[in-house]
Design goal:
The protein is mostly beta strands. It has a single domain, classed as Clam (outer membrane lipoprotein receptor (LolB), chain A). It has 2 helices and 15 strands. The protein has helices at about 30-40, 260-270; strands at about 20, 45-55, 60-70, 80-90, 95-100, 110-115, 120, 145, 150-160, 165-175, 185-190, 200-205, 210-220, 225-235, 240-250. The strands form 2 sheets. The protein has a 13-stranded antiparallel β-sheet, with helices on both faces. The chain has a two-stranded parallel sheet with strand order 1-8.
Length: about 270
């Protein structure tokens, strides 16, 4: 499962949604069952999302970037495919990240930097490093299997108040990674009960300090898919934050494996 209970496929619909590849049966209303429902909800077979990324440093200075995120959801033994492409400004234009998720193997991530003119693989030791200077890590863009975490309820009957003041029933769910090398071994998330969207998350480091916070500030249905249209990931220790705002989202547009090849990564970055 992923980081915020995780950073989903920034993609398919909830930018930082909880993406769990459920591989075992869970009892109804159990923590594992909740995680599985999040993954099973309709997010389309594929998607193309245009968004703006704003990076705020500890002095409050902001840098703005534009990017396009495409995704393809696969079944069976194959995992999802994700391609992130930056379109502006010029100092990052052409940079791309390709993620091949695998159900029963380690995910593969490939980075294309125009200055190098080639694709390089992101190694396991780099997964938790910052992605292009943001508060997101490479590991945030991609997923893990459900067996990588254990789950427990913090509150079965919690609630989430949206920015417009409405209150929705939610589960408060804790996930703990079984990976002892993880920089973020514990996450506490709020999952809305009506649509199984992760609407907030507190992410803890190895010292059990809350280091990162994820929050949804805009959520709407686009083409029938619940989509987080405005989200923020902040770092309490670094006093930085990254905001992502969706300008356009399209689903079920007919993408194929060819759109997520290493060749496509290089071509799309030009």
């Amino acid at each position: 499962m992923r980081n915020t209970l995780a950073l989903s496929t920034l993609v398919a619909s909830t930018l930082l949604a909880l993406a769990v590849h459920a591989q075992k049966t869970a009892s109804p209303d159990s923590p594992d069952w909740v995680a599985r429902q999040v993954d099973d909800r309709d997010t389309g077979r594929d998607s193309r999302v245009e968004m703006t990324m704003r990076l705020f440093d500890r002095q409050g200075r902001v840098r703005q970037r534009a990017l396009v995120l495409t995704s393809l959801r696969e079944g069976g033994s194959r995992g999802d495919r994700v391609l992130v492409r930056f379109t502006s400004p010029n100092d990052i234009k052409g940079t791309g990240l390709l993620v091949w998720e695998h159900r029963s193997a380690v995910d593969e991530r490939f980075l294309y930097l125009p200055s190098l003119g080639r694709v390089r693989r992101i190694t396991g030791s780099e997964r938790q490093e910052s992605f292009v200077g943001s508060d997101l890590s490479y590991e945030d863009i991609g997923g893990r299997t459900i067996d990588d975490y254990t789950y427990a309820f913090v509150q079965r009957d919690a609630s989430w108040t949206s920015p417009d003041g409405r209150t929705y029933p939610a589960w408060q769910l804790e996930s703990r990674t079984v990976d002892r090398q993880s920089a973020y071994p514990r996450t506490i998330s709020l999952v809305r009960k009506d649509n199984f969207v992760v609407v907030s998350a507190d992410i803890f480091n190895r010292r059990n300090e809350r280091e990162k916070r994820y929050a949804v500030r805009g959520l709407e249905q686009i083409e029938g898919v619940w989509t987080a249209t405005d989200v923020i990931m902040s770092n309490d220790l670094q006093h930085t934050r990254t905001e992502l705002t969706v300008s356009q989202a399209r689903y079920n547009i007919g993408l194929t494996d060819a759109d997520f090849s290493r060749r496509a990564l290089e071509q799309s970055a030009r």
